[in-house]
């Protein structure tokens, strides 16, 4: 139901849920690594201030996203410092939002404020966007293997229910581009952390002497246990390692970050 359409134009592809935008006034979208000029590594479409690119370029890229989405009332997209933890930062009316780079450590931003774009960034980690279409609450989640192991997605759903009165049936979830089970090779020590917590499930495979982890599967299980219906979940299916349209730390090491962005219009 939720779906995502590619609204590529002006060298800036964005995957957008037209269903949520047109029917509920909520924007959930994901960017790619495509750049402004269509060529040149220095002009890659990085949105992360911590990825080694000039601050001015990052700010221009963020502003370009807002223009692309025709959000004339918005001047900033807000993000925090991601640390592979489980901190949830509630963006409310009491916060000082002078800077788009919020100097707080958090791997989830959540808000019920209109016209306050929130964003998480990644170059292989899961970017997961959530929207309560009834209470009008949005969340942007960054969950790599550490966040998945610590069940951040389940914690965010619980937070929405506890603090905003959300109900499972009203929550829609979108998985953005991330490294997938086809490419996400891990060692036996990391696998043991997951099997110790979740048991021997269908979230990993072994090929010859290699172990591959399926983080999407693990996060989907968390959503199911939290009462989120399968029909309310969308997965873009894009592997950042396989697909050159996305940044991948595993593939390139030194690289930018794509974004998952949520906005209540």
Treating each run of at least 4 consecutive H or I residues as one helix, how many helices?
A: 7
* Order of secondary-structure elements: EEHEHEEEEEEEHHEEHEEHEHE
Rg from alpha-carbon coordinates: 17 Å
Report how far the terminal alpha carbons are from each other.
20 Å
- CATH superfamily, by name, is CNF1/YfiH-like putative cysteine hydrolases
Secondary structure: helix percent: 10-25%
**Major sheet description:** 6 strands, mixed
Q: For the residues shown, what is the average pLDDT?
A: 92
Broad shape: globular
Please give the order of strands in the largest beta sheet: 5-7-10-9-11-15
Taking pLDDT < 50 over at least 5 consecutive residues as the criterion, the unreliable ranges are 36-42
CATH architecture group name: 4-Layer Sandwich
Q: In short, what is this structure?
A:
The protein has 265 residues and is α+β, with helices and mostly antiparallel strands.
What can you see in these coordinates?
By secondary structure, the chain is of the alpha+beta class. It has a single domain (5-264), classed as CNF1/YfiH-like putative cysteine hydrolases (4-Layer Sandwich), CATH 3.60.140. It contains 7 helices and 16 strands. The chain has helices at 18-24, 55-68, 145-149, 152-164, 188-198, 215-225, 249-252, and strands spanning 5-6, 14-16, 26-31, 79-81, 88-91, 101-105, 108-111, 118-122, 126-132, 137-143, 171-175, 185-186, 204-207, 210-213, 233-235, 258-264. Strands 5-7-10-9-11-15 form a 6-stranded mixed sheet. A 5-stranded antiparallel sheet has the order 1-2-3-16-8. It has a 3-stranded antiparallel sheet with strand order 12-14-13. A hairpin with a 7-residue loop joins strand 1 and strand 2 (14-16). It is globular. The protein starts with a strand and ends with a strand. Residues 36-42 have low confidence and may be disordered.
């Amino acid at each position: 139901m939720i779906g995502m359409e590619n609204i590529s134009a002006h060298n800036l592809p964005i995957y957008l849920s037209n269903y949520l935008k047109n029917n509920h006034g909520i924007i959930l979208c994901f960017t790619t690594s495509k750049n402004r000029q269509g060529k040149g590594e220095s002009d890659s479409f990085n949105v992360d201030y911590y990825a080694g690119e000039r601050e001015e370029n990052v700010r221009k890229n963020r502003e370009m996203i807002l223009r692309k989405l025709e959000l004339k009332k918005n001047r900033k997209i807000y993000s925090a410092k991601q640390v592979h933890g489980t901190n949830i930062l509630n963006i409310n009316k009491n916060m000082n939002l002078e800077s788009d780079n919020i100097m707080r450590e958090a791997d989830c931003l959540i808000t019920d404020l209109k016209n306050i774009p929130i964003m998480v960034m990644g170059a292989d980690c899961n970017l997961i966007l959530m929207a309560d279409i009834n209470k009008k609450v949005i969340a942007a989640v960054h969950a790599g293997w550490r966040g998945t192991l610590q069940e951040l997605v389940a914690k965010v759903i619980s937070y929405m229910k506890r603090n905003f009165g959300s109900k499972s049936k009203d929550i829609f979830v979108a998985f953005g581009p991330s490294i997938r089970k086809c490419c996400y090779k891990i060692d036996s020590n990391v696998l043991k952390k997951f099997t110790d917590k979740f048991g021997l499930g269908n979230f990993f495979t072994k090929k010859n002497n290699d172990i591959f982890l399926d983080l999407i599967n693990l996060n989907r299980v968390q959503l199911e246990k939290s009462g989120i219906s399968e029909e309310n979940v969308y997965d873009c299916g894009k592997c950042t390692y396989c697909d050159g349209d996305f940044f991948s730390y595993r593939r390139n090491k030194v690289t930018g970050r794509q974004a998952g962005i949520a906005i209540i219009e």
